[in-house]
Amino acid sequence: MFLDERLEKILEILSKEKKVKVNDLAHKFKVSEVIIRKDLKRLEIEGKLRRTHGGAILLKELVHTIALEDRIINRTKQKEKIAEKIISHIKEKEVIFFDVSSINYMVAERLSKIDKSLKIITNMPSIAALFNKNSQIEIIIAGGDYHKEIGGIIGSEAINNISRYNADKAFIGCAGIDIDTGRVMNFDANDGNTKRKIMDISGQNFLVTESKKINETGSFNFSNLKEFTGIITEKNKLEYSNDIRKKLSEDDTDIL
Predict the structure, then answer these.
(1) What is the pLDDT of residues 157-172, one digit of tens each?
(2) Which ranges carry the HTH deoR-type domain (predicted)?
(3) Which helix (H) or strand (E) covers residue 121, if one does?
(4) Domains parsed from the chain with CATH numbers
C-alpha cells in the first residue's frame, strides 16, 4: 500500500471511530508503529488530526470552550447527579474553593438553600451572588480580571490573590482528560494557571466533570490525575471499564 493511500485510510477510520491507536493501525496496515507515528505526525501538520498519547483524534472532535452561561443553562441529568455527589463531600466548618464550573454553580445553588456553616472562596462571581440571603456561609471572591466567556476571574492578579488563602477542599472543572497519560486539560492558559494555583492552596482537590470528558482533549495541560484526591462524575466506579478503573488506580485517584 502506498503512503498516500494509507493516510487516506487512516482518515477514513478516524471519521468513523473518532479516535485511533498506533498499535491497532500498525497491525491493520502491517507496518511498524514507528511508521504509523510518522503518518500521524504528517496528518497533524496538515491540520487533520491531533495526536494523543498512543494514538490520535480528529480535530473536529476537540472540545471547544462554551460560554459559562450556556453551560449553566444546559442542566443535564449527569450534572445534577454530580452536584448531589459533591454536596456529600462538603462537611461543616470547611473552607471550600469553587473553581469556575457550571457544575460548581449547581452545587452552590443547593448550598445556598441549606443551613451549613462554611467558608466559600471562589473566582466565579455568579456563585458568590447566590449567597446574598444566606448568613451561615461566608463568601470570599478572588479579585482580578474578569473573563466574560469563561465566566470567572482569572490570570496573574487572580493568582496573586488566591495565593493569600488556604482551603480544605477545592472542586475543579476541566475540558478533557487523557486517561492514558493522566493529563487534565482546558483551553485557556490563564484559566489553567488559575486552576493550578487553586489546587496549590487546597488540602484536597477533586476533579468534577461529566464522564464524557474522559478521553476528550484540550489545548492546555494544567494538571495530572495523580494530583487529585478523587474524580467525581455521574457514574459509579463499577460503571467504568476495567481499563479506566485500572488507569485511575495507577494514578491513586479514587472514583467517588
Answers:
(1) 999 999 999 999 999 9
(2) 3-58
(3) strand 118-122
(4) 3-57 (1.10.10.10), 68-255 (3.40.50.10470)
H or E element at residue 52:
strand 49-52
pTM (two decimals) = 0.74
The answer to whether 248 touches 255, Cβ cutoff 8 Å, is: yes
Give yes or no for residue 62 having a pLDDT over 60: no
Cell output for 243: 481499563
Q: List C-alpha distances in Å: 44 to 30, 53, 58, 64, 134.
A: 21, 13, 9, 18, 52
Cell numbers 457550571 label which residue?
Answer: 102
pLDDT of residue 74: 62
Angle separating helix axes 77-88 and 102-111, nearest 10 degrees: 60
Quick one: cell of 160?
Answer: 496573586
